[in-house]
């Protein structure tokens, strides 16, 4: 699933191409993408909208229009966006297409059809995001004390708490595992039991791995790709994720795998003792 670095990479790639462009024509061919709203109705509302900016909130891509409305896109597991000249052939698993006034088009494809598009006005957007995502971990005001407050009193596993988007926005399975390895914290540790020193390490590790993920333009494991079809390279930087039985780069102990919160979880049993 695309996480914060992947969605931020997509935003940065698309922003100069879509800024100040007008949607001339919209085609949405999948009712699951827009439900409960009918796809034809949403497509009709998008036509004529002029794009003012592209933002991101956690894993959500926000296409802001001059009208004050915002198209909220969540790629979920296998969604991706392609930008190209209009009139191209139908892509495999293509679900939607926006034709722009400069002769280009934005194409959305999704193999497993879990992605969502939602068009909201300003008031709806604020409440929609507030109910779903917590603070941005790369924001200037995201401090170790803020992180400590988000974890205080939580009796669930640390990894489960960090996967909860209401704790922090944008973290997923890959970057949680990588951050916990960098911070030398066991993923099954009780979230609310961390010392101040551990919180400081975790805070720095989260920001470090997310920044690296953005610098490497995300991780391409299966479906994720940039809007021009190129792939990211963060997968070459993984220290634990997907590396079961390989040696830890810090201590040479074999990486272990378990399941926490229903997700495959990789860690070093020596570096990340409970």
What is the CATH first-level class name of the largest domain? Alpha Beta
Structural class: alpha+beta
Shape: globular
Distance between the termini: 28 Å
Total strands: the figure is 10
CATH architecture of the largest domain: Alpha-Beta Barrel
Find the CATH superfamily of the largest domain.
MutM-like, N-terminal
How does this model look, in words?
The protein has 2 domains: 4-130, MutM-like, N-terminal (N-terminal domain of MutM-like DNA repair proteins), CATH 3.20.190; 144-267, Helicase, Ruva Protein, domain 3. Helices cover 30% and strands 22% of the residues. It is built from 8 helices and 10 strands. The protein has a 4-stranded antiparallel sheet. The protein has a 4-stranded antiparallel sheet with strand order 2-3-4-8, sandwiched between helices. Strands 9-10 form a two-stranded antiparallel ribbon. α1 packs across α8 (196-215), α5 crosses α8 and α7 packs across α8 (196-215). The chain starts with a helix and ends in a 7-residue tail after the last strand.
């Amino acid at each position: 699933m695309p996480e914060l670095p992947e969605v931020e990479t997509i935003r940065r790639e698309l922003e100069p191409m879509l800024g100040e462009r007008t949607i001339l024509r919209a085609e949405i061919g999948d009712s699951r993408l827009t439900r409960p709203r009918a796809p034809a109705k949403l497509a009709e509302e998008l036509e004529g909208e002029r794009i003012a900016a592209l933002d991101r909130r956690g894993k959500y891509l926000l296409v802001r229009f001059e009208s004050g409305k915002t198209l909220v896109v969540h790629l979920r597991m296998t969604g991706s966006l392609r930008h190209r000249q209009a009139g191209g052939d139908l892509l495999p698993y293509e679900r939607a297409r926006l034709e722009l006034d400069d002769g280009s088009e934005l194409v959305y494809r999704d193999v497993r059809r879990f992605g969502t598009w939602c068009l909201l006005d300003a008031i709806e957007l604020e409440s929609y995001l507030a109910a779903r995502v917590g603070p941005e971990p790369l924001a200037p005001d995201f401090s170790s004390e803020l992180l400590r407050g988000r974890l205080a009193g939580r009796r669930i596993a640390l990894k489960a708490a960090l996967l909860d988007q209401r704790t922090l926005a944008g973290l997923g399975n890959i970057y949680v595992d990588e951050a916990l390895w960098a911070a030398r914290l066991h993923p099954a540790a009780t979230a609310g039991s961390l010392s101040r020193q551990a919180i400081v390490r975790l805070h720095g590790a989260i920001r470090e791995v997310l920044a690296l993920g953005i610098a490497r333009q995300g991780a391409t494991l299966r479906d994720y790709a940039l809007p021009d079809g190129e792939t990211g390279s963060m997968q070459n930087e993984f220290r634990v994720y997907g590396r079961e039985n390989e040696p830890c780069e810090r201590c040479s102990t074999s990486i272990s795998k378990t399941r926490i919160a229903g997700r495959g979880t990789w860690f070093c049993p020596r570096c990340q003792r409970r």
